[in-house]
Amino acid sequence: MNASAGSAWSDHLVVLPVVLPIAVAGMMFLMDERRRRLKAGLSLATSLVLLAVSLLLVVRAGESALVYRLGNWAAPYGIVLVADRLSALMLALASVLGLCALVFSFARWGRAGPRFHGLFLLLLMGVNGAFLTGDLFNLFVFFEVMLAASYGLVLHGSGEVRIRAGLGYIAVNLVASLFFLVGVSLIYGTMGTLNMADLARRLAAPQMGEAALFEIGCAVLGIAFLIKCSAWPLGFWLPTTYAAASAPAAAILAILSKVGIYVVVRLSLLLFGAGQSQGFGRAWILAAGLATMAYGTIGILAARDLTRAAGYAVMISSGTVLAALGTGSDGALAGALYYLVGSTFAAGALFLLAEILQRGRAATEVHQPVFADEYRDPFADADATEIGRVFPAAVAILGCFFLVCTVMLAGIPPLAGFVGKLAMFTGLAAGPITASAWWLIAALTLSSFGTLMPLVRLGIHSLWVPGDDPLPVLRPTEFAALAGLLASCLVLALWGGPALAYADETVRWLAQPQDYVRAVLGAGLEGAGS
Amino acid sequence: MEIVLSLGIGVFAASGIWLMLRPRTFQVVLGISLLSYAVNLFIFAMGRLTVGAPPVLGAGAEIVSVDDPVPQALVLTALVIGFALTALFLVVLLAARGITGSDHVDGREPHQAEPQPETPHP
Q1: B56 or A161: which leads in pLDDT
Q2: Which of A164, A181, A194 is facing B96, going by the closest CB pair?
Q3: CA–CA min distance B120, chain A (Å)
Q4: Complex ipTM, two decimals?
Q5: Which of A144, A155, A185 sits opposite B71 (nearest CB)?
Q6: How many CB atoms lie within 10 A of CB A204?
Q7: What is the pLDDT of residue A4?
Q8: Chain B within 8 Å of A175 (Cβ-Cβ)?
Q9: Which of A507, A511, A526, A501 is nearest to A67 (CA)?
Q10: Using CA atoms, how far apart are residues A495 and A100, in angstroms rounded to an integer?
Q11: Residues whose CB falls within 8 Å of the CB of residue A274, separated by 6 or more in sequence, listed in order
Q12: Closest CA to A243 of A159, A176, A320, A318
């Protein structure tokens, strides 16, 4: 951390991704529902600022972690936000996905119910906070903010399908939160601290009582995160919920399962990378990851519409990162992080594309209002004024977009999906090839084929087969959102070298937890302002 | 005191889990509430059980006779969040009851669903 008082303004960048969205969201809840343009403009400006800040953090988090001490209290007692390479990478991912989903919602979905923009910003605040926080209890609080906003977004647009899916989603997540609390309190009861760096420091010391109880606490905590990232026996809620949610909500929810992945990666490398409980839970994570990939592949093969296929694609991408983490190979994990970014963009884009292609079918439309007083007919005015503003050559453009999505998700050569899988292969082949490496190689290859087949089938069905359905309509904002997401995929492929080098550096940083501990706790000892 | 607290947590958790697995939405809400009581008591117990000990270290106080304030703060946060989310869940429950016309967690009565796939009788 830069200790000089002269660079004070830029040190506050770390807290901006949390403070800015919640401040704007708070303002928005006070405004009248009818001031749509103002709300849309405000949330667009906020998302743009968040994107700029997160890109700046990606650049600045280069050498060490940026530590922000709230209220300037020193680390083990005060609350810290930590932006290191992994956090900055995930922040950038969330900002790009958030911006594109928001732009997409301007076309139609932002009007499908009350308080969309406020909930959307609260969700971004929770996600950003979960990526930045340096202690477990604030992680719980940010998780809950994120989940509470996501409940609202899943129900956005109302209708029987969404309410039924939302009921299950909320119940599953309430139970997951209880697991989270039990795990956190067990860890506090045995270790006496919840600060992640302090936990890692105490684990590195040789003497520790109650090691078994601590590991039970971590396992219970892990269950909560594996529910979030929809690992195999815990993830049956995901495809149903995401298929029921409105398109921009589903696209931004794709980042939620990545929050679970982020925490699992962060904690298992920080706490179990070295020291007393080295390698704890790795075999379980590998097994869960492989099972998730298998289940996701079977699910996507059986999927009969695009939104469900996209949900299973999210599961496959989560499972891939978990399995790569479980092999314990640094090269594979670096490839998996690169793959995670690309596949999240592609899965988000697929949710948006699916909504355009399936428009007009019953499940995606708005039904009965829940709150009659706040409900304004969302699409009636939009359909009346859209004549003349519809994007030309919609089918050709949608076909191209669909092709990019398929190539990304299946991991076919020219694009980033393939580069990520190749990086995982070479990472696994770098060391002695173990049995778990063979399992992961087999799963990666099979999941590629398993993703390619159903996506090609669904694409042919919805784009090429002549039918009675009206031609899909593409509005300029929807085009911009999809183009933004897929351009990010292309950028990731074209600048694959620097991106992979960044992922490598990230994993090298994560593999040395003592640096993280020194950055967080050492900053407190220096006594410099932040 | 330990035996009473652990029995209480156990009874709350057991009834909560049983209710949570019941088919009616209101039972699920009650189950989640009871389970969250059990979890809150559990967090509280993680600060060790003491009687009459002050939570703040005064001048000259011995470190063994101090109650740990952190789990109590955690319980407060968890209580508030749990309360808000239970209220939200109740609203969704009422919406589901109103729209689907059934208080079953699947949104339809089990006997309604069975006749639809016409399975031939052997």
Answers
A1: A161
A2: A164
A3: 25
A4: 0.86
A5: A185
A6: 16
A7: 43
A8: yes
A9: A526
A10: 21
A11: A204, A513
A12: A159
Nearest by CB to residue B39, choosing from A159, A160, A181, is A181
For residue B103, the model assigns a pLDDT of 83
Domain of residue A299 covers 12-203+210-364+392-521
Is A376 part of a structural domain of the chain? no
pTM of the model: 0.88
Question: How many A×B Cβ pairs under 8 Å?
Answer: 94
Q: Which band of pLDDT confidence, cut at 50, 70 and 90, is reported for residue A526?
A: very low
Are residues B92 and A163, on separate chains, in Cβ contact within 8 Å?
A: yes
> If you write DSSP's letter for every residue of B27-80 in order, what string do you get?
HHHHHHHHHHHHHHHHHHHTT---SS--SS--TT--GGG---HHHHHHHHHHHH
Structural domain includes residue A143: yes
Length of chain B: 122
Q: Is residue A159 part of a domain?
A: yes
Element (H, E) at A69: strand A66-69
Confidence (pLDDT) at A3: 43
Q: Give contacts of A158 with chain B, Cβ < 8 Å.
A: 95
How far apart, in whole angstroms, are the C-alpha atoms of residue A147 and residue A142? 8
Structural domain total, chain A: 1
Indicate the residue type of A227. I
The CA distances from residue B65 to A193, A245, B57, B62, in Å, are 19, 53, 9, 6
A404 within domain boundaries: yes
State the greatest distance between any 2 C-alpha atoms of chain B, in Å, as a whole number. Answer: 84
